[in-house]
Write the structure tokens for this entry.
Amino acid sequence: MTSTQALSAVAGVVNFIATILYVISIWRGHTKPSRVTWAIWTALSLLTAGGMYQSGTLNGQMYAVVVGDIVITSFALLWGSGGWTRVDRWSLAGALIGLTVWVLTKDPFYAILISLSVNYIGAVPTIAKTWKYPGEEDLVAWGVVTLATFIQFLAVTEWTFAAMAQPISYLSIQVPLVLLICRKFR
């Protein structure tokens, strides 16, 4: 196993630990995940992983992301927040448009580009909720998943769009969310 493969595996394990922490927080009633965000993120993680697989850049973190997103979405449907607010509807519509374009292009480059763009749209309900209610998200879980993404970033050996897009786009969502959650401690 190369050092890159080891880092990617560590990123996957750390990401899975973050999922466990997040689910425990949901179970205890401390976290109320956005149903729409997690439904969009689950669909996108499956598509992003597919595009990364097609382009030969699937990494350890994405395996954990796919499993974690499915588990968290299941919990969000039962104990989450939101559903059909205006932000939720617009985010879901944007995600569906992006997914449709991706299916029509059948190109791994566009698959990754579109799915990660829709990932930002999917984050909107969680960012809006966290802005208003920072106590409804778990700082430790988000901090750990951000660490996992940073480790995955360090594992990248090819400085290509396909290899770099996932960790950079994830970090650009995770870091602001961590900062928003930190507001609850003021």
Observations:
- The CA atoms of residues 17 and 121 lie 25 Å apart.
